[in-house]
Design a protein that fits this description.
Blueprint (H helix, E strand, L loop, with lengths): L3 H19 L1 E2 L3 H9 L7 E4 L2 H11 L7 E7 L2 E9 L4 E9 L2 E10 L10 H4 L24 H25 L1
Antiparallel strand pairs: 1-6, 2-3, 3-4, 4-5, 5-6
Helix pairs in contact: 3-5
C-alpha cells in the first residue's frame, strides 16, 4: 500500500514524464529549409500582413491571428514557410515547401500536443504533395483524417492552405 507522499511523488513523476514526452522535435526548422532548397538556407524574408492577408488567414484558421508579419524563405521561385497552429492545446510547428505553386513537402517539425502525433508520419504528410489551392481557399484534394488526431489533421490542412495562399500572394506582388 502506497503512502500519501509516495503517491504524490508517483503522480508528479507521471505528469512530468508526460510533459517531457509531449514535445518532440523531429527536424530543426533551419535543417528543413536547407533540405528544401538543397543548399544553405537563404536569408529569411518578411511578409507583412495587410488587412486582406489578415482576413484570409483568419478565415482559414477560423480564429483571430494576432501576428503582424510572417517570415519565409525564397529561392528561385520556391518558398518555405515555417508556421504554427494549435491542434488541441499546444502549437504544432510545420514546415511547408512550395514549388511551382503546389506543395512539394509538408513536415511536422515540432509536435507539442500529448496526442495525435501520427500526423508527423510520411503516410499522412505525403497526401499534401502536389496539392494546390482552389479559388475558394481549399485544397484541391481531400486529406484523409486519422482517428484520434482530428485536430492535428485540421491544423496541418489549415497551415498548408495558408502557405499556398501566401505563396500566391508573393507571386502576385512580384508580377
Amino acid at each position: 500500500m502506497m503512502k500519501p507522499l509516495q503517491t504524490l511523488i508517483f503522480i508528479a513523476a507521471s505528469i512530468l514524464s508526460i510533459a517531457v514526452l509531449a514535445k518532440s522535435q523531429y527536424q530543426a526548422p533551419q535543417d528543413f529549409i536547407s533540405q528544401a532548397f538543397n543548399a544553405p538556407a537563404p536569408k529569411a524574408k518578411v511578409f507583412w500582413l495587410d488587412d486582406e492577408a489578415q482576413k484570409v488567414i483568419e478565415e482559414i484558421l477560423s480564429h483571430k491571428f494576432r501576428k503582424m508579419r510572417i517570415r519565409y524563405w525564397q529561392q528561385e521561385g520556391e518558398t518555405v514557410w515555417i508556421l504554427n497552429e494549435i491542434g488541441k492545446e499546444a502549437p504544432i510547428t510545420v514546415g511547408i515547401h512550395i514549388k511551382d505553386q503546389q506543395i512539394a513537402q509538408t513536415k511536422v517539425l515540432i509536435y507539442r500536443e500529448s496526442r495525435g502525433d501520427e500526423v508527423r508520419h510520411d503516410f499522412f504528410t505525403d497526401q499534401f504533395k502536389a496539392a494546390k489551392l482552389n479559388e475558394d481557399l481549399k485544397l484541391d484534394r481531400h486529406i484523409d483524417g486519422i482517428t484520434g488526431a482530428t485536430l492535428s489533421v485540421r491544423a496541418l490542412t489549415k497551415l498548408s492552405r495558408i502557405a499556398l495562399w501566401l505563396d500566391s500572394r508573393i507571386r502576385r506582388e512580384i508580377t
